[in-house]
Amino acid sequence: MQNIITNAMTVYPQVARVVVAVDCIIFGFDGRQVKLLLIHRGFEPEKGRWSLMGGFVRGEEGLDIAAARVLKELTGLEGVYMKQLSTFGEPRRDPVERTVSVVYFALIDINQYAAPLSDRFRAEWFTLKKIPPLIFDHREMVTQALVRLRQDAETQPVLFELLPAKFTMPQLQSLYEGVFSRKFDKRNFSRKVLASGLIVRTKAKEKSGSRKGAFLFRLNKSRRTLRPVFEHIAN
Description:
The protein is α+β, with helices and mostly antiparallel strands.
């Protein structure tokens, strides 16, 4: 063991320094629109410009732990759905130092987590159609995250992480339309999604929009595969 340590100490100093960072892409849904949470970068280079949530990995941290820490420090959020997306490591992606970024994306119900969000970095929500210019390669990260989210949504119930436990049919349709950037016929969407068995209607109603109210639905958790469901809805 001592020989291994000695050899490592001899070889490693010749290797160029590489900084490891994590960037967190936070998608949220407010019941009407899918949005992206951005912050003003707090240091140079590109200080003050719009950026994803990010930070550097500490020496004693694993990647998942670092991403969860950064998310909590910058937004106050914890215990939310978060998944590793990809790694970005082009040599000149950061003009200061060679930095490899491991990217995660998180999904939240904006109405549920509005209160804990920190205003320390002047965080703001942007609709997917009005994302401002971002630093470095952050826009490419967001594009890849949307592609992965759409892929995952075809086979897994991940989009329901963006909804409250009980939701209306219009909310569900708006969510699907926002994520997939397409419109669905209202009657066909309702009919097809009910026929698929993806959701279950409850006895409760949402009455804020009208006196009659709209029935609330919940995810049918016994549904283990979603590909046939999505294809049924989309066609």
